[in-house]
Amino acid sequence: MAAAKIISHEDPKEYWSLKDFDIGRLLGEGKFGKVYLAREKQSGYVVALKIIFKEKLDKYRYHSHLRREIEIQHSLSHPNVLRLFAWFHDETRIFLVLEYAAGHELYKLLKDLKYFSEQRAATYIASLARALAYCHEKHVIHRDIKPENLLLDMEGHLKIADFGWAVQSSSKRRTMCGTIDYLAPEMIENKEHDHAVDNWTLGVLCYEFLYGVPPFEEHDQNDTFRRIMKVDLNFPSTPRVSPEAKDLITKLLVKDSSKRLSLKKILEHPWIVKNADLEQHDSK
Ligand code: AMP
Q1: Does the Cβ of 11 fall within 6 Å of ligand 1?
Q2: Which H helix or E strand runs over 29?
Q3: pLDDT category of residue 177 using cuts at 50, 70 and 90
Q4: pTM for the whole thing?
Q5: What sequence ranges are listed for the domain Protein kinase (predicted)?
């Protein structure tokens, strides 16, 4: 497999440089730099090359974050987690050699479609539950799952990207992080939290996939906080959503983190079993 060459290097920094790649079109731009389509010259393997400017890292004091992001993402290998094959740097830039996700960005697709069908939503939730079960087994909590961090490959398989807020720890954590709408109550209260914060977020995402907006969205951040703390959950009459889907959401958006549905139980939930396209996550 062509990717094997990239994956097999134990210390990528020693082996790789920009000369190893043909650079193609700009795929997108983030806070710290640009992402280009690229081809590794020897194998012809197509990747996404993320170029991060060290100057910007200094400005936002993001060094330790990036180091953690690289270490975590590089250690993960799952069909629904975007692979980080290698990285290297020169004087001014850091280069991340990433799996190329040729499909849409999930948040753009959601914006275009307004909301997803139950089949599509269930397929994505099942993919996420599997990927998160894999991460949690490795003691990685993502803590920042949101549509903007999810990419799709050519066949429409979901890929978790961006491990900027992830943490590798088997003990409870206390850092406040993540995007407000997706924050679990224990994080808002700055209490200790564990992997169950990702299960809460799956409930928020499931709602957003089916209704087009996250469940606790308000103009004022304090109102969102208040609604999350009360688990002030309403299901609008349109679009029509099945009672089974609402049941799953209700069992994930539970204030007591120990009572949230486990990832295993999500995959066994009747709504997932009925609607998720299993080929979507078994085929790779
Ligand atoms: P980021 O800096 O990670 O926010 O990436 C900026 C943009 O580049 C994203 O919004 C995507 O459009 C694109 N992008 C990032 N990573 C990839 C990838 N692995 N494959 C395809 N496009 C990507």
Answers
A1: no
A2: strand 21-29
A3: very low
A4: 0.89
A5: 21-272
